[in-house]
Amino acid sequence: MVNDLAARARQEFRPGQVVACEQQGSDFLFTCDNGVRLRLHVINDKILRFRYATDGQFAPDFSYALPPDQARTAPELLEFREKSDHYRITTARLICVLGKENLHTRILDRSGTVLCEDDKGFHWQYNDDTGNDLVLMSKQVQSGVCYYGLGDKPANMNLRGSRFTNWGTDTYGYVKGSDPLYKNIPFYLELQQKIAHGIFFDNTFKSYFDFAAERADVTSFWADGGEMNYYFIYGPTLLEVSQEYTRLTGPPELPPLWALGYHQCKWSYFPEQKFRDIAQGFRERQIPCDALYLDIDYMDGYRCFTWSPTHFPEPAKMVRELAEDGFKTVVIIDPGIKIDPEYEVYTEALEKDYFCRRADGPLMKGSVWPGLCNFPDYTRPAVREWWAGLFKGLIQDIGVKGVWNDMNEPAVFETGTFPADVRFDYDGHAGSHRKAHNVYGMQMARATNAGVKRFAYPNRPFTITRSTYSGGQRYSSGWTGDNLASWEHLWLANIQCQRLSISGFSFIGSDVGGFIDTPDGELYARWIALAAFHPFFRTHSSGDHGDQEPWSFGDQVTDLARHFISLRYRLLPYMYTAFWQYVQEGTPMLRPLVFLDQNDTNTYLRMAEFALGDNLLVCPITTPGVDGRWMYLPTGDWYYWWTDEVKAGGAEVWAVANLDRIPLFVKAGAVVPLAPVLQYVGQAPIEQLTLHVYFKNGTAESVHYDDGGEGYAYQEAGQQTVRRFTVAGSAQGLLLTQAIEGPYQPSYTTYQVVFHGLPTAAVQVEADGNMLDANDYATETNVTLPSVIVDASFGEIVVKLAAE
């Protein structure tokens, strides 16, 4: 007798013939003759969820990716039909056809264009070693398809032809093509026939994505365990796909405005006098800065929530005095808790059994910076609550304003991460490290954010994390990890921040100048010029490689750093508005060029150009020794920021950019609000904003949001204002209207309105029927433009132009 059980255990299984279908509202349950089940949820007219069970039983429906209190709206239209060989589900935007054999799936838009079709579709293999199913999904590759997203992958913007793994990993000094990295975002966008959709594979086990790499006609995604549980998200634009995904997984709250300022960090600033000297260096040189960071050397023997008595003997006094000069102190907290019977955090967690355990019961031990450590199980609600409470000393008592979570992939020296048999509570859905690894950093950030928020109130919290999972944007900002001081990494920083932004995680930046090694002055200047347009703006470096403050590269680079950091502070009203749009509408703050015009195939493979918000287009210089670059402008007219020269889109243009410039364009019709340069947010009340109005022959709308940038009055009492501007231009003149929503009264009472690109001279300017005197406004590059001073509550401004 031949024993073929081992071979049979490795065989591939697929769904059988559908024998039953049940509908309950917008949920459908399909049962096959071999016990396989598919539960199809019609989330709304644009989102379908597919959830498969191989043995007829679904596990409890639980996901860290989705907000627990998320409201679910019914689809506007839902029709269900059974045919001889398939079922058809129709919404207002989609048609889903399910074959009765093998549950083969095809999704079309309402015009009949095939958007997504199974190849093999769902299939699985049983893993004898773990007891888990290896769950797989394969899709046909449509003609001309491009793939985007997937978080922090350091690869070309279009992912086609590549394969990736999601398994959060401490990848020190990664390079282009390194995989996996720190973050685990199993979401990608697909563009084909100028129509976009997305796939979100909500599975926390180690997962894999093959974008037509192994076979040119098949794209696949799979995981080492858990369910085949994925969402199909329809656009039809890439921007809408990203919005829908971000709304599904939940946007963050608004950060404090100072968090969008400039941050300075190093491993490590100590002792206290060195930290104070860095602060003084910024103020003496008039370089704006809001936040200074303390890395692990501020602690007593790297014990979290402690202070070194020799390096920082009076932390509360230091933090308070720095705050008086506008600096917010941010400190690092890692997950490893030193095994030390004299250490209160350790003994309390030990007593309450809050540490992770191995399968047979012993506590999980691993070496990180403090030496041998135990690690909290952040997937347990009681542990998160305890962890949040630990921040009282740092936030409420000492006055720290932000917390930085590192090493939370989780990383362990020598072994890389935890052993696979480590057990986790997983909010009552117990599992091993195979299941919890990819959410460990996210749940640590969640607990940290809860603590900072509790003790910072009535102010807003600020946290930053290195590792996360889909939905982690609800709890923290992030950065792209331990990069290198190289031109390649400047290029990667641009790509990675764009990719994370369209993957739901907009509050992102890179270590300016590189964490490892030392940049020269030119590289640092070009990097800080790019990072001024990233939502999270921080220089960070390793102490092993020399100084990396903005004044560390000579007077010329000091002036350049001041120039670009000051530009960032002027742009804060615009940046904050873009963040508000991200929170309200799910729009990514950074948008690759293809997001601006997916009907133009010239944008599909472009990587350098990106939009910040609705109206700014940026293209960094990522090679040394050049005084400009070629870049592509999308459809429309664009003003070069530095000269006001107008360029027509749909073509490549040469952008002159010496070290004091970055290629930066403004969309015609835009209204861009700028603030005066302050040395830190809140240094003084802002009495006047400048509105830069860019002429367009036609109409365009812009928005400006303000709520003061701190506290919760905008939520609790509606203290916010949304100002919607409409520009209508013609050969005869320009009409600028303002519609004000909300009761919040900002500190500024007037605008200086600057008009760009008027085709002829302005002969008359009126605001709400009153004549205004026009004055000359000189830009920093000596372009002279007409401007007027108006009340900030104006309704309309009319500019009459001279006849040609």
What does this structure look like?
The chain has 14 helices and 50 strands. The protein has 804 residues and is an alpha+beta fold. It starts with a helix and ends with a strand. The mean pLDDT is 96. The strands form 9 sheets. The chain has a 9-stranded antiparallel sheet, with no helix packed on it. A 9-stranded parallel sheet has the order 29-28-27-24-20-19-18-31-30. Strands 1-2-3-4-17-14-13-11 form an 8-stranded antiparallel sheet. Helices cover 19% and strands 31% of the residues.
Characterize the quaternary organization of these chains.
single chain
* Overall 3D form: globular
How many strands, which pairing sense, and closed or not: the largest β-sheet? 9 strands, antiparallel
Average residue-wise pLDDT: 96
Count of β-strands = 50
**Number of contiguous helices:** 14
Using only C-alpha atoms, the radius of gyration works out to: 27 Å
The stretches of 5 or more residues where confidence is low (pLDDT under 50) are none
Distance between the first and last residues' Cα: 98 Å
Short recap of the structure:
With 804 residues, the chain is an alpha+beta fold. The strands form nine sheets. The protein has a nine-stranded antiparallel beta sheet with strand order 5-6-7-8-9-10-16-15-12, with no helix packed on it. α6 packs parallel to α8 (433-456).
